[in-house]
Amino acid sequence: MARTTSAASPTICCTASSSTSAPFVPPRVPACSPAAGDTSGHRFRCSALFLDSVDAALAAHSAPTVEDLSIFLPFNAPRVSACRVAPWLLFASQRVMGTLRVLVPLQMSYFTKSEAEEEEEEVELPACAGAKRIFLRLDERWRLRLPPARLFAALTHLEIRSARVEGSELSALVTTWCPRLKDLYLFVTLCPVSDISIRTESLESLCCRVYNTSRIEVIAPKLERLAVGDIQSFVISAPELAELDWDSHVYDPRRHVFADVGLDRRLRSLKINRDSIAAPLLQRFDSVDELDLDISISQEISGYENFLNKTKKLPKCKTLSVSVQHSQHGLLPIMQHLLKSCSTTRKISVTLNTIGVCGWVSFCPLHCVCRLVENRKIDDIALSSLEEVEVSNFTISQEEVEFIQQLSRCNASVLKRIVIYYKRHPTTSLTKEVCQEACQKVRNKCRQNLKVEFYVYSRM
Questions:
Q1: What's the pLDDT score for residue 432?
Q2: Which of 48, 61, 49, 57 is nearest to 21 (CA)?
Q3: Which pLDDT does position 47 carry in this prediction?
Q4: pLDDT tier at 24 (50, 70, 90 boundaries)?
Q5: Per DSSP, what are the bridge partners of residue 190?
Q6: With bands split at pLDDT 50, 70 and 90, how would you rate the model's confidence at 33?
Q7: Which residue numbers delimit the F-box/LRR-repeat protein 15/At3g58940/PEG3-like LRR domain (predicted)?
Q8: Which tens digit of pLDDT belongs to each residue from 257-315?
Q9: What pTM did the predictor assign?
Q10: Is the pLDDT of residue 460 over 90?
């Protein structure tokens, strides 16, 4: 394998699939040093030189097949025209027998309004009959054409990021022309607004963030893993679905239909990201092996009450992972409420994401219900199955230490291990004495027969 890197760190890698093939000659990128005060022009010159070197390297490569073709340009590189990338895709369609990766700069957010309104460019994805894995990160202003009757016979993994596509072309590609596709990752915008309909016998994993779609239909009898972003309406038929990653701001059972998902009301994994917690989705399942919740609660009393209502009934789970994002309310009342649903839970992982350098501090109104004494006690909660607790981003604030103390003394007869990852602020000197003092402060609050593991890392 050969690799070349320009001053802006773009990269091209190419691996021949046969030892008898002609060796790949790395493209030579001429030296390019910026003149004083000319960093912008320097970037454009280096980018142009690199693009020319890629074209030359592919033209000179004589091996009939290529196992891996990877072309990377960094995020901050100047914009690349679609017409420069089209020959690379054509080369890949004729030679690649393994993996194709083409990653160009993502700069849509940096464009001025006049630039963003420029006429879009088109680039076609030719049929890559031998490619098994395709990864594309394109310009958001490009329309990626997916012509019909183009067979991707060997393709098992397809990932498309930051491009405009037509819904009908995308539907046809996945449904008809990718008979072996197992993994599909879509981060695209439909142009124009339209529906998508995917029917596939082979798909096992789907990650779907599709904008400008009015409705998505997926019929996939072998689908096991599904990640969904903000989609206005969908119907998913996936009787084998075991893992669901929900990252949408709204869950409406009338518009978000799981036709035959979780008929036994069980999942292997359910992840619900912050601002996405929806009671109907949580209550749809009785049992989840791994439940992962990102929790963000606004400062107002209504924010805390909304959290209580959404999470008043959790599915039974073996592992509960909770990431509390910059909460304005007390840690103890938040965890007390969640732990009431954890009678069958074996492991609890808590990630604390606090504001500032002082650890956990409550900024909610003084009359907030989370401040009531009865809502800050967890030592009387029955956690008869709990074996292990893991706490990350620990800062030894009073609230956090009290949480560990109460948790270690709760009704959890089989709890044997608490693992703490202490987040040291850069201004705190990292000495053996400091670490021992922090560790001992926590150990003194825990019952004697409990194993407490304490790890220290520095926050950058």
A1: 76
A2: 61
A3: 72
A4: very low
A5: 165
A6: very low
A7: 145-241
A8: 999 887 788 999 999 987 677 888 998 999 999 999 999 888 899 999 999 999 999 99
A9: 0.85
A10: no
Beta bridge partners of 205: 183, 225
Phi, psi of 108 (to 5 degrees): -60, -40
User: Can you tell me which residue has the tokens 């393994």?
Assistant: 98
Given the candidates 3.80.10, 1.10.287, 2.60.40, 2.30.110, the CATH classification of the domain at 266-460 is 3.80.10
Q: What is the rounded CA–CA span in Å between residue 216 and residue 199? A: 11
Distance CA 371, CA 30 (A): 66
Q: How many CB atoms lie within 10 A of CB 297?
A: 22
Q: For residue 134, report the phi and psi dihedrals to the nearest 5 degrees.
A: -130, 125
Q: How far apart are CA 58 and CA 60, in angstroms?
A: 5
Exposure on the CB side of residue 427, measured as CA atoms within 13 A: 3
Q: Which residue has the higher pLDDT, 71 or 25?
A: 71
User: For residue 332, what pLDDT band results from cuts at 50, 70 and 90?
Assistant: very high
Taking each helix axis as running N to C, give the angle between helix 301-310 and helix 331-339, from 0 to 180 degrees, rounded to the nearest 10: 20
Type of residue at 343: S
CA dist list (Å): 157 to 154, 166, 405 = 9, 20, 47
Q: How far is the CA of 404 from the CAs of 145, 152, 276, 375, 441, in angstroms?
A: 56, 54, 28, 16, 11
Q: Is pLDDT at 428 greater than 90 in this prediction?
A: no
Structure tokens at 176: 């008809």
Please enumerate in sequence order all residues whose Cβ is within 8 A of that of 322, keeping only pairs 6 or more positions apart, or say none. Answer: 293, 295, 335, 338, 348, 349, 350, 351
DSSP state of 293: E
DSSP string for 156-218? -EEEEEEEEE-HHHHHHHHHHS-TT--EEEEEEEEEEEEEEEEE-SS--EEEEEEEEEEEEEE
Number of H helices, E strands in the chain: 9, 21
Look at the block and give the residue holding tokens 């926050």: 459
Residue with tokens 């006690």: 377
Rounded mean pLDDT of 233-243? 96
CA distance 421 to 112: 44
Q: Are 316 and 290 in contact (CB under 8 A)?
A: no
